[in-house]
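tool=predict chain=A
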Amino acid sequence: MADEVTLAQWNRTLLSRQHLLTRVDEDAVEVLDRCVGLQSQDPRAAFYGLWSRIEGFDPTELDDLMTDREVVRMALLRSTVFLMDSQDARWVRPLAQAALEGEVRSNHLRRLVTVTAPDITAHARELLSGNELTAKELGQKLGQRWPDDPPSTLTAVARCTLPLVQVPPRGLWNGHAGATYRLFDDWVGPGEPAVEGDEARKDLIRLYLRGFGPSTIKGIQTWAGMTRMRPLVEAMEADWELNRFRGPDGAELFDLDGIDIVDGDGPAPARLLAPFDNVVTAQADRRRIIDDEVYAQLVTPNGLMPGLGLVDGRVVARWSADDTGAVRIEPLAPINASDTRALDDEAQRLTEFHRAHPAT
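tool=predict ok
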């Protein structure tokens, strides 16, 4: 073991790399790449994620990236919908295939009566080749071939076994349409992954540590939805790419060589996080930003995650917006008067963002 990293350093380093200490004046795609995509099953979550990180963020910038096909919304890591740079998604999607197939085995196969997953995949590919279909239309067309099987299950299998993009207007700031699917290569254009196999997994580790490090191996694996990453991490350490640290309570942490650990004494302003923000969601290392008793208040049977409020770098509240765009803060832990005012100021800032870009 090498140098020690305190809990405060671990927290501030994460916030710094995620641009949650100081908003940046950068293009949305650059920040999106630094976050290794943004979780996006809530279609507006990525907009809030960028709003919290970019000074003067305009949602039309992200709309344009989607309509220009530079970024895509699709099932990626952990079989979860991400918004990601299209060229990164091309090589990340094959890495996610094992988790997607796991979803088929654990959730969908038992509901099938007359058909196998490979048959669904082949027919769905035929239906979608050069075409786009809503989730309902795809289920109906698959159901015409296999009328004894649930259309929703047939669609779910196709979503997991084919690289399907959810195309606009779904996912736009004011895109209210349901999911409409296109094959990835039909939407983005044909091409080969920039990197494959273990080299792709190493690249994913590099990207994760750049945006979320330092991290435990479990932290990397939980976020990626993959296992058996230790041999790759240790090989990268042996090649002097990674450094090893002792974290809080003796936790074994790894980080990219040459990237600084941030001073734990620096201030952390109040921030509102997006729903499903990956600094909290899918985090085995979440103790660096949220206490267990606060996290327990967020756990729901359907796995939904609200927008959250940070004070001094830790989650202490949740937020919601009403139909007018007004943002309301609900404490999850004791908050003093000055911190309450700081959160209220962020809530007012987000309210003004809503009113400058009203829902239509």
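The two ends are 55 Å apart (CA to CA). Residues 280 and 286 are 6 Å apart (CA to CA).
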